[in-house]
């Protein structure tokens, strides 16, 4: 099984849907290879099978995250961290239609309501991106 699958939404057409676990900046298969299906609530039919994280996967992800924090991430300045959050907000907004389509397909929400949710999520990321260089303290 690959870690992505081509899917289609009524609003945006075909797109490549990652189905793996996002660990170390890439989508990977679960260590045990287990998957579970995401079900379309309006049709009760499977949308896609995604990889299931087991305790081993979580331990691995935490280990990788800890190593990253202790090496490269700890040298990222608060200003740079804020810029990364704002960039993520920009990406949410640039991909609003696709993200809202996926959200609507996955949970049965109306597309227009999903667009509002994605927009609000982008706003939240932008808000915290603005705070990243204003809060002082130690994280280690």
From TrEMBL:
EC number: 1.2.1.3
Domain Aldehyde dehydrogenase: residue ranges: 31-139
Reaction equations catalysed: an aldehyde + NAD(+) + H2O = a carboxylate + NADH + 2 H(+)
Protein name in the entry: aldehyde dehydrogenase (NAD(+))
Family indicated by similarity: Belongs to the aldehyde dehydrogenase family.
SUPFAM superfamilies named among the record's database cross-references: ALDH-like (SSF53720)
Uppermost EC category: oxidoreductase
Top-rank lineage group of the source organism: Eukaryota
Species in which this protein is naturally found: Lepraria finkii
């Amino acid at each position: 099984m690959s870690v992505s699958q081509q899917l289609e939404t009524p609003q945006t057409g075909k797109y490549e849907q990652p189905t793996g676990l996002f660990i170390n900046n890439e989508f990977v298969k679960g260590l045990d290879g287990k998957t579970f299906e995401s079900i379309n609530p309006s049709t009760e039919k499977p949308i896609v099978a995604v990889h299931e994280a087991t305790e081993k996967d979580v331990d691995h992800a935490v280990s990788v995250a800890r190593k990253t924090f202790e090496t490269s991430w700890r040298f990222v300045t608060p200003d740079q961290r804020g810029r990364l959050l704002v960039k993520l907000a920009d990406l949410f907004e640039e991909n609003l239609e696709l993200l809202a389509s996926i959200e609507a397909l996955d949970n049965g929400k109306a597309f227009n309501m999903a667009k509002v949710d994605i927009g609000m999520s982008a706003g939240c990321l932008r808000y915290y991106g603005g705070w990243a260089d204003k809060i002082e303290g130690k994280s280690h």
